[in-house]
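Section 3.1 - Work completed
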Amino acid sequence: MGRGRKMEWAARANHMGGIPRKAIIFAAGAFARAVANLLNSTTVHNPETLIRLVRSRPPGVPLLTVSNHMSTLDDPVMWGFKGFPTMDANLARWVLAAEDICFKNPVLSYCFRLGKCIPITRGGGIYQEHMNEALDRLSDGAWLHTFPEGKVSQENEPIRRLKWGTASLIARAPVTPIVLPIVHHGFQEVMPEKYLFGRRPPFPLFNKKITITVGDPIEFDLPKMSEMAVSMSKDCSSSSSGWPSATRFGLNEAAQKCLYSSISKQIWVVMENLRNLGKTFLKQDD
């Protein structure tokens, strides 16, 4: 990505007194509410857990939400449900966003930066430059959302194998974040990937049902998981792929891979259970 499209300055809260950020968040929030509540019907299970953690978690403790990825509209529309502070720029999430979609040109880059998006190069690895920016936001105690599957999947199938980027953020953050899983269904009908001539529709479709299921925070015993990772990695060889030799827990590359794999597996199991619970809710709603 060219330096002109990184625009770190536009992501700062004090950029032009914060007015452009407030305007973008307000506009995105209004759009999200319209799509979620006026054009379509949205049902949220356990919304109070998400709202409570966004509004009043302990000071300095970051929130990391993770969800499946069913369309390019998941964010921001999944935050547009009734009762959520959708238009509050201070409470709004930071989110990892694909640079090849959201940062194609300077205008898009500026708007998405104002909207608290962090550009990520898919396939660029878990230690790429802007992962450090995401880590900084967690260090600030902010709310960060990620799509650990790494790309859109509209099939009604089990959650795919999770990428390690989210796991690495959990392990590397100075204060372990509260990790909250969310699984949704219906966005694949609001914005199908192959609608007109194999392309997405120009506007969101309407009269669809969106279901969002919020889980409970996932507990990680990182010191114990790190010890197990060291033990499991003793017989593994490490490649010289540029990974740092030490992390928060002093792990070499092989141990890091074992740790990130274990964290990802734990998240996957919870998300898959949540997906099955969501299917039950769908049947009840019908």
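Second construct:
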Amino acid sequence: MAGTTDGNFLRQFRDLTTREFKQITANQFMDVWHHYDSNSDGYIEGKELDSFLKELVTSINKEDLGPEVVSESALKEAKELILNAFDENRDGKIDIAELAQILPTEENFLLLFRRDHPLDSSVEFMKVWREFDSDHSGFIEADELKNFLRHLLKQKKREYTITEEQLTIYTGTVLQLFDRNKDGKLQLSEMAKLLPVRENFLCRPVFKTLAISANKMTHDDIKRVFNLYDRDENGSIENEELNGFLKDLMELVEEGMPAEAKDYDEEDLNECKKILLDKCDLNHDGKINLDELSMILMSYNRSSSDTECAKE
């Protein structure tokens, strides 16, 4: 980790003359992230966020001048400004990709976070997952991740200038940033952090409102959900369409859980698929049709309704 001669970690990344931030490399970005995400939960939040914002503001000074440099009111104002500008999902904390927008991060490395061009849906995510999990292990290993990052950068830049050495550094850095269980590979939930989806269709406000009461969900509501996942319009949710639906469903169920409980891998997805098809695939064709989806959503809604009643 890069050294610092005083109490402000970010000051080492500013130009001593202009006081502007120098371009931060992939490895330096990783150092900054690990420094402020002290509990390794994947977010800079609470006291971590206060510390980051205070040092971000005071790092422009050549040395620490005492606690009076940033008042509590000024810190609160700075926090609101930063979150309004960069906290895209409005959860009151900073994730890895949001930090990459705040700091002047090396251009090629910044492109890996895909904040400007997220995938359209979890169906598209599962297609990408299948393409780059070339050995069908259920994980994206380091060599597969390197191939994915190479493909991503070629898509993003017409003139492909990144070297193999840089690509190797990026691969190692991405693994360190997103491989939360430190097993040297990315599972589904970890890859989902790196490769964002524009939206989880099941998390749309209208669907969440309907989920409070099963009686409020109409046939038209269910048909709209069905059409979102039946991408080839063949009348069935199957293959990667079904996997995308299951990914969204697992993430919906896990909402509100602590971060460490939100990890899932392909084995979890396959187990979820097995249970779903055993209970809801009435014609045993390995697919989900409109009537079967209706049964799944009604069952989920009744479960959600019971949970809400239990809370009251």
